[in-house]
Design a protein that fits this description.
Length: about 230
């Protein structure tokens, strides 16, 4: 039996490309997104949701739809060298390319369209959303659960801005999104090339940086040219 899943919303995100997107929700608290519901979903569809602190967002990994999937993948947590079954990971390369994120619900606006503003996001700009549910802690929080090969929060990189001028052109919120995102080390897990310059398109900027040992140095920032 086959099913059709309709897009109920689209995501407006600071992450404009796959490279640099937080690998899990909550790792970059400053990453705020707006989930804009399709016009047919009016204010009634979110009545009562404002009373919840977090929401589950089901979405499509649209950025990798053309890349297919594999029964074995290489999780970054294992250095990108050891393979695990796709259903033992959160890889976007899945049979149905479905994703699930737990996001902090900041506020809701219901004017021309319904917009949910969330933080701690790991969603690419334009992501199709297929469902939204409230998070219920007493049912869903299992702090003592065994977590397999995932052991604690990954170590973050130290962030250095090469010049103060790069920081002064940005707002505090913009600096936080950029710094917190790079601190998660967006490189492929197997890659360690200190001289390489990485480029991340985030917010409205093209950000260039290098990574040596546990320090990322931001060496350039300019408005992104579409």
């Amino acid at each position: 039996m086959s099913y059709t899943i309709e897009t109920i919303a689209r995501v407006h995100s600071p992450y404009k490309q796959k490279f640099g997107v937080a690998r899990q929700p909550g790792l970059v608290p400053a990453a705020e997104v707006c989930i804009e519901l399709q016009p047919e979903f009016h204010a009634n569809s979110v009545h009562g949701l404002e009373a919840f602190g977090y929401i589950w967002v089901s979405f499509i990994f649209h950025g990798v739809l053309g890349e297919g999937w594999s029964p074995l993948v290489r999780p970054p947590r294992l250095g990108g060298k050891r393979k695990m079954g796709v259903f033992a990971t959160r890889s976007p390369h899945r049979p149905n390319h479905l994703g699930l994120s737990l996001l902090k619900l900041e506020h809701i606006k219901t004017d021309k369209t319904v917009k949910l503003y969330c933080s701690g996001a790991d969603l690419l700009d334009g992501t199709p959303v297929v469902d939204i549910k409230p998070y219920i802690p007493f049912v869903e929080a299992k702090p003592d659960a065994i977590s397999g090969f995932v052991t604690g929060k990954p170590q973050e990189l130290n962030i250095v801005w090469q010049t103060e001028a790069m920081q002064t052109k940005l707002s505090t919120k913009q600096r936080d999104v950029i710094a917190q995102s790079i601190a998660q080390d967006p490189r492929p897990a197997y890659q360690n090339i200190p001289e390489r310059v990485y480029v991340m398109n985030i917010l409205d900027y093209e950000v260039k940086f290098q990574i040596q040992e546990q320090t990322a140095t931001i060496i350039g920032i300019s408005l992104h040219q579409a």
